[in-house]
């Protein structure tokens, strides 16, 4: 259904890369993507995970684990270095 509605999607770099990562690493690829603090599009990876029919429980655990690690690290940095973060935010 997704390919019928958006045929150009399957040829994009993000889609091809997501397909490669999911086929190689499975839920571990989702974990890594969710743990990254970079603004990376996550929708292609989630769509490919759905197409590959990865077990939902593994997908949820991978997403939650990655996000818990990322946001725990954010919280640590902000509470440990509040003056530095304040200077960075208000410098622009």
Please summarize what this structure is:
This protein is an all-alpha fold. It contains 6 helices and no strands. The chain has one domain.
Structure overview:
- The chain has 92 residues and is mostly helical.
- It has one domain.
- It contains six helices and no strands.
- Helix 2 crosses helix 3.
- The longest helix is centred in the C-terminal third of the chain and has 25 residues.
- It starts with a helix and ends with a helix.
- The mean pLDDT is 87.
Q: Which features characterize this protein?
A:
mainly alpha; elongated; 92 residues; 76% helix; 6 helices
- Measured as a percent range, the helix fraction is over 70%
The N- and C-terminal alpha carbons lie at a distance of 44 Å
Radius of gyration: 17 Å
Number of helices: 6
How much β-strand is present in the residues? under 5%
Tell me, rounded to a whole number, the average pLDDT: 87
Low-confidence region ranges = none
What's the helix-strand series? HHHHHH
- Indicate the overall shape: elongated
Biggest sheet features? none
Structural class: mainly alpha
Could you give the count of β-strands?
A: 0
Count of the domains: 1
